[in-house]
Write a structure and sequence with these properties.
Blueprint: H1 2-30, E1 42-45, E2 48-51, H2 56-67, H3 72-82, H4 92-100, E3 108-110, E4 118-120, H5 130-142, E5 169-174, E6 180-186, E7 191-194, H6 196-202, H7 206-229, H8 232-254, H9 260-290, H10 294-310, H11 312-318, H12 327-337, E8 338-346, E9 349-357, H13 359-370, E10 376-382, E11 385-391, H14 397-407, E12 414-421, E13 426-429, E14 436-443, H15 447-450, E15 458-467, H16 478-482, E16 483-485, E17 505-507, H17 512-518
Antiparallel strand pairs: 1-2, 3-4, 5-6, 6-7, 8-9, 10-11, 12-13, 12-15, 14-15, 16-17
Helix pairs in contact: 3-4, 7-10, 8-9, 10-11, 10-14
Length: 519
């Protein structure tokens, strides 16, 4: 009996100790103390796992390459060729481990190989977004060798059978004239249709997608993101740490800890890291100097719209349209933005019911739209003609004034106001200008907050428009396409009427050459 009692007390104490340990470990993990060796892209600092800016971009590049169709083996071969981190022994298993590690999206799984793992969310600063991580997990099937083909299918892995919901296969026939015709099919359900069915639906809005990709993702968001993701102070701190590491390596070599060969190898790795950080610091300095903001996105899209109207010939010559993309480029853009395309059967005909875009793309775009910094195209009846108009969300008056002021540095942009009748869903414009074009319509109040139930009778909207006789005000037409007006130009006082101005600009595409031009 005594023996059983002692065993019971001992077991109880073991369980209590185990429970206390689990609680303590959980608290430590939630505060960023990860009980593992720091993975690539991270390092331990004050016992916490923090981003290592010297290697962070290698991780970002791995996810980006995989997202864009590279296999584990192809990435490892590329890294071996480029001697990344001074290594030539990158393996596909290493790449796979990195891509499957939840830590890179800020989460951690303790006891991953046990029957009862514990999932901790948002415990460290993420290197990539959760959406990007999820997208890369979806890519596993799409990147396997069985999907490597000689022909490019625009919508492969995006279409599911409207009957059995299986992913459709693709095939093509080549005519005597050399033209290839693409089809998608389901063997089980005996469904087959031409790619043109999807193209006809997709082409309704593809030009907007191309514009969004060129303006938002290529120019502004990377700069804005870098400014917040890699602050100047953090980069300077990382450079200081790498220089200290270099000094420690030198001392170790002097004291006989390293052989000359080992010393040179370690020295090269650290010097490469310092050079990479220094380049990022210089880029961040230029980015902060240029001060790109979300307002620049809206401004650039306004200018592009006016250029399309006023400088149609030059716009077409300079702007890459969807039809100008190669088939491979078209497929890459669809892969980048589209998650899947929903199909349905109407009789024996296959029709597109919906195109679902990736969350990693939709969320930033939706946030920009909600905050008034990106427009959408909405249908509108203008007189007796069905047309469309660019619409953006509410912005405070001072921000609207700044955008108008900057637009007028290039074009004689006019401003007016309109009344929108909620019940009739009609605009009343207080002007009837011939040969004028509406640049953009926007609410003068935040009616989503003021009138969530649509009980107000009328809304007030601001309208930016241009007249046919208005001319481009700059000496060089290149300015309209390669630069945007600089918001730091304080020589213009905002009014709702045109004002003589002196122009300051900043480059749309950031590069060293443009940076030198603005100095």
């Amino acid at each position: 009996m005594i023996s059983r009692l002692l065993m019971s007390v001992s077991q109880n104490e073991i369980e209590r100790t185990s429970e206390r340990t689990k609680v303590g470990l959980a608290g430590a993990i939630k505060s960023g103390h990860i009980p593992h060796i720091a993975p690539l892209g991270y390092k331990h600092e004050d016992k916490k796992l923090v981003i290592d800016y010297a290697t962070k971009d290698i991780v970002v590049r791995i996810f980006d390459l995989y997202y864009n169709g590279y296999s584990y083996q192809k990435i490892s071969n590329l890294f071996n060729e480029e001697n990344i981190l001074g290594k030539d022994n990158w393996r596909d298993s290493t790449i796979q481990t990195i891509l499957e590690n939840e830590i890179y999206k800020g989460d951690f799984i303790h006891g991953k190989r046990t029957k009862h793992p514990t999932y901790y969310e948002d415990v460290v600063e993420p290197i990539i977004s959760k959406e990007m991580w999820s997208d890369c997990q979806v890519q596993k099937k799409k990147n396997s060798r069985s999907y490597q083909r000689t022909l490019t299918y625009l919508y492969l892995q995006k279409l599911k059978c409207p009957k059995c919901n299986r992913i459709l296969g693709g095939k093509a026939t080549t005519k005597k004239n050399g033209n290839a015709y693409f089809y998608y099919y389901c063997n089980d359900c005996k469904i087959e249709f031409k790619e043109k069915v999807i193209n006809d639906y997709f082409n309704q809005f593809i030009s907007e997608l191309v514009e969004y990709d060129s303006v938002v993702n290529q120019f502004f968001l990377p700069m804005i993101k870098q400014k917040f993701d890699e602050p100047k102070e953090q980069l300077e701190k990382e450079i200081k740490e790498e220089n200290n590491k270099l000094e420690r390596i030198k001392k170790a070599y002097i004291n006989g800890v390293f052989e000359l060969k080992e010393y040179n190898e370690e020295k090269k790795i650290v010097e490469n890291a310092i050079e990479e950080l220094q380049n990022k610091l210089e880029t961040t300095d230029c980015t902060e100097e240029l001060k790109f903001t979300p307002k620049d996105i809206l401004l650039k899209r306004d200018i592009d719209f006016i250029n399309k109207v006023k400088l149609e010939k030059e716009y077409k010559a300079r702007t890459k349209m969807w039809k100008d993309y190669t088939r491979t480029e078209q497929a890459e853009l669809i892969m980048k933005y589209v998650d899947n395309i929903e199909l349905a059967l109407v009789g024996n005909e296959v029709v597109v019911t919906q195109i679902n875009f990736r969350d990693s793309i939709c969320k930033p775009c939706q946030e920009l739209y909600d905050n008034g910094y990106i427009d959408t195209t909405k249908p509108m009846i203008l007189g007796n003609v069905l047309g469309s108009v660019r619409f953006s969300n509410y912005l405070p008056e001072e921000e609207v004034g700044e955008i108008i002021m900057r637009l007028r540095q290039y074009y004689d942009v006019h401003y007016t106001e309109a009344t929108y009748y909620v019940d009739k869903q009609m605009f009343y414009f207080n002007f009837a200008e011939d040969n004028s074009a509406i640049v953009r319509v926007f609410p003068l109040e935040d009616y989503y907050k003021l009138d969530p139930d649509n009980k107000m009778e009328t809304y007030k909207f601001g309208i930016l428009y241009i007249n046919e006789e208005d001319k481009f005000q700059m000496q060089e037409i290149d300015t309209a396409f390669d630069y945007i007006p600089d918001e730091t130009n304080d020589s213009v006082i905002y009014t709702k009427e045109p004002t003589p101005i002196s122009v300051g600009v900043k480059p749309v595409k950031f590069c060293e050459e443009n940076a030198e031009e603005t100095n």
